[in-house]
TrEMBL record:
Membrane topology category: Peripheral membrane protein
Endpoints of the signal sequence: none
Biased composition (Polar residues): 720-736, 745-754
Coiled-coil regions listed in the entry: 5-188, 231-283
Gene encoding the protein: Kifc3
Annotated Gene Ontology cellular component terms: adherens junction; centrosome; cytoplasmic vesicle membrane; kinesin complex; microtubule
Residues spanning the membrane: none
Source organism (scientific name): Sula dactylatra (Masked booby)
UniProt-listed GO biological process terms: microtubule-based movement
Binding residues annotated for ATP, in chain numbering: G466, Q467, T468, G469, A470, G471, K472, T473
Subcellular location: Cell junction, Adherens junction; Cytoplasm, Cytoskeleton, Microtubule organizing center, Centrosome; Cytoplasmic vesicle membrane
Record field: compositional bias (Basic residues): 755-764
Name this polypeptide is given: Kinesin-like protein
PANTHER family: KINESIN-LIKE PROTEIN KIFC3 (PTHR47972:SF5), KINESIN-LIKE PROTEIN KLP-3 (PTHR47972)
Length: 764
């Protein structure tokens, strides 16, 4: 097997060398033939190009030259034709020489693919032969190991047999000696008894040794049987190895036959490629002859055209000169045209810009008009206006994916915001949306129109809604350096009162209350823990008031600050996991503005309710326990009652459950159609608060669709009161803030007051 493998390896190396030599020759011939073919094709293409150039030159001469230059160009063309004939003869000689060379196959031949396939097959055969050789070496090594083991077993068996034979011979000799001794002793009975006993003892020892020898002989026979069985197994393995070697030899012979067949096919294919190369050379030579004949014919046609075009060339000289002058003047004309085009394009761009500016101005004007009309429609329908404010991301929100911003805004519409919830974008449309960077001043500018309308005798309610930690208290109260809606509203009211001081006398009073655990408490009273009740006004107007609620008269900003500080100290706030200063109650700031016109005696009473609702919270997240848990339960219950009221108003139900909660009962005047109502919904942009933000925005959309009906003004004509009476109505008293019912005296009213009363009656 090793000799055949070595022979097969030598044959494979020889075939590889021959194949490499054939490949090198084939590549050399192919490159040579390719270069020559490309050279010949290039020369033919050059001749064609030159002929084409000659034809173009003739046409150019036909259009440019005159009769005086015809003879010169004719001589040049004759010389060029002669040179072309020489080049054609050289090409013909190269073609003949190429025909004699039969060295390389044509390019792009199918035999190259077959050659590559055969090479791949040869590499596969080589790889398989290498694998078989590896297996054969492994089998030889295994046979050698088993042979060595068999030799060792045979040596041990021989040693055991020799030792056994020696032991048997020794025992037989001793047994024979013992038997002879016994026989001799039996034949001599006269010896002394002692000797007989000694012989008997020696005979017993011999028997014991004989038993031991027999047991050892049996053990050795067992060992011999085992060794024979191992030897039999070794012989079987040797036979299987010999069979495997025979199979490998058969495969090697098959591979050798396959290699010989591939070698023969390669020789046949190379011979066929030689024949095809010769055929391709003949075809190329015949094509070249045909092309040369066509070139000769084209040259003859060129000569004929030269003779016929001479008269026409003279007639075209004048045209050529005129065209030359036009070409000389063309740059000036082009520059002038470009200047005019640039001027026209610049003017068109300026017109487009001006048109765009005008359209943008009209669009903004229409947008403002649309908002104005929408606000007027909302006012006429009595809808609750809803503003949204998004607080910025703070350090309390943490870091990572839970603190990511999920709220985006519409660049073209400041009333739309988008919330990313569970991978989907949900859009909400409110009346106005304030981004996180909006200031307190910007927020108040949108609500100051409502605030000032209470001076004219309208009831106004502004309440902040949202989850805990969303910024409701900041929007309503603010800080000392940056106050919120409450303090700015009173400052605006004082400013408006000072502006109308020439014609009107006003008195402003302030009350503050909170709803803590469904109990109404006075924040400005001497005993804030005392529970108050909500009752109907006894004058039959149907409005509500709180008996015992402290009402302070304020005349300056300093009075406002004192009232706010006193009320803020008494309000219930605690720390939770969601908010360090969480409001644990609903706070209400009630501002009553009473005014009288000196000239007509018209009396107006307006009320401004500023409500800071406690935030809704999830008990599991806020970590509320004990009293905090009870507070959270009451807060969520009152906000749920507010949702039930909004649902009943939205669906126009006959019964609205205002009395289900102290909060909804106290806001009955603001939600029953006799007040201008604005809800400021506060939301958090953090991803971890997405569920609460979604609930708040959905509630805001439901509130926005509620129609409360047209608003009525609280004004009446009365006799002229004294300044002491006007001031005595409000400071320090606890009277209900309902409508007055004083009837005017006909003798004290002027004709102007009578007309104003008629207008009020018709508009009421």
């Amino acid at each position: 097997v090793m000799a055949s493998m070595a022979h097969l390896q030598e044959e494979k190396l020889r075939l590889q060398e021959e194949l490499l030599g054939l490949q090198e020759k084939l590549a050399a011939r192919e490159s040579d033939e390719l270069s020559r073919s490309l050279q010949l094709q290039g020369q033919v293409e050059t001749l064609k190009a030159k002929l084409l150039e000659q034809a173009q030159e003739i046409s150019r001469l036909h259009s440019e030259l005159g009769g005086t230059d015809v003879e010169k160009h004719r001589d040049l063309l004759v010389a060029e034709n002669e040179r072309l004939r020489q080049e054609m003869k050289a090409c013909e000689g190269e073609l003949r020489e190429l025909r004699r060379q039969q060295q390389a196959p044509c390019r792009d031949c199918a035999h190259l693919q077959e050659n590559a396939r055969l090479q791949e097959r040869l590499s596969q055969l080589q790889q398989e032969a290498e694998e078989m050789r590896t297996k054969l070496v492994e089998l030889d090594l295994e046979v050698q190991q088993k042979t060595n083991r068999l030799a060792e077993v045979e040596l041990r068996l021989k040693d055991s047999l020799a030792e056994r034979a020696e032991e048997e011979e020794r025992l037989s000799r001793r047994l024979r000696d013992s038997q002879e001794t016994i026989a001799s002793l039996k034949s001599q009975p006269q010896q002394i008894k002692y000797i007989i006993k000694t012989v008997e003892v020696e005979s017993a020892k011999a028997k014991q040794a004989l038993c031991e020898s027999q047991s050892r002989n049996q053990y050795l026979q067992e060992q011999v049987g085992m060794q024979r069985q191992v030897l039999k197994e070794m012989e079987q393995q040797l036979q299987s190895s010999q069979k495997t070697a025979a199979q490998l030899r058969a495969q090697i012979m098959m591979y050798e036959a396959e290699l010989e067949r591939a070698h023969g096919q390669m020789l046949e294919e190379m011979q066929a490629m030689e024949e095809e190369k010769n055929h391709a050379i003949e075809e190329a030579f015949s094509r070249a002859q045909v092309e040369m004949k066509a070139v000769h014919e084209n040259l003859a046609g060129v000569r004929t055209n030269l003779l016929t075009l001479q008269p026409a060339l003279r007639t075209l000289t004048h045209d050529y000169n005129s065209l030359k002058r036009q070409v000389r003047d063309f740059p000036l004309l082009l520059q002038e045209t470009l200047r005019n085009a640039r001027a026209e394009i610049g003017q068109a761009i300026e017109d487009v810009h001006s048109t765009n500016r005008e359209l943008l101005r009209k669009y903004r004007r229409e947008l403002q008009l649309r908002k104005k009309c929408h606000n007027e429609l909302v006012r006429l329908k009595g809808n609750i206006r809803v503003f949204g404010r998004v607080r910025p991301i703070t350090k309390e929100d943490g870091e990572g994916p839970e603190a990511a911003n999920v709220v985006t805004f519409d660049a073209d519409d400041d009333a739309v915001l988008h919330l990313l919830h569970k991978g989907k974008q949900v859009s909400f449309e409110l009346d106005k949306v304030f981004p996180p960077q909006a200031s307190q001043e910007e927020v108040f500018q949108e609500v100051q129109a409502l605030v000032t309308s209470c001076i004219d005798g309208y009831n106004v309610c502004i309440f902040a809604y949202g989850q805990t930690g969303a910024g409701k208290t900041y929007t309503m109260e603010g800080t000392a350096a940056n106050p919120g809606i409450n303090q700015r509203a009173l400052q605006l009211l004082f400013s408006e009162v000072r502006g109308k001081a020439a014609d009107w006398d006003y008195a402003i009073s302030v009350s503050a209350a909170e709803i803590y655990n469904e109990a109404l408490r006075d924040l400005l009273g001497k005993e804030p823990q005392e529970k108050l009740e909500i009752k109907l006004c006894p004058d039959g107007s149907g409005q509500l008031y709180v008996p015992g609620l402290t009402e302070f008269s304020v005349r300056s900003v300093e009075d406002i600050n004192k009232v706010f500080e006193f009320g803020h100290v008494n309000r219930a706030t605690e720390c939770t996991n969601l908010n360090e200063h969480s409001s644990r109650s609903h706070a209400l700031l009630i501002i009553t503005v009473r005014g009288i016109d000196r000239s007509t005696g018209l009396r107006t009473t307006g009320k401004l309710n500023l409500v800071d609702l406690a935030g809704s919270e999830r008990v599991g997240r806020s970590g509320a326990e004990g009293s905090r848990l009870r507070e959270a339960q009451h807060i969520n219950k009152s906000l749920s009652a507010l949702g039930d009221v909004i649902y009943a108003l939205r669906s126009r139900q006959g019964h609205v459950p205002f009395r289900n909660s102290k909060l909804t009962y106290l806001l009955q005047d603001s939600l029953s159609g006799d007040s201008k109502t604005l809800m400021m919904v506060q939301v958090s942009p953090a991803e971890k608060n997405t569920s609460e933000t979604l609930c708040s925005l959905k509630f805001a959309e439901r509130v926005r669709s509620v129609e409360l009906g047209p608003i009525s003004r609280k004004a009446e004509l009365a006799s002229w009161p004294s300044q002491e009476q006007l001031e005595g109505d409000s400071p320090g008293t606890t009277a209900p803030s309902g409508r007055g019912h004083a009837s005017p005296s006909p003798g004290q009213l002027s004709s102007r007051a009578t007309s104003i009363r008629r207008k009020l009656q018709t508009s009421g």
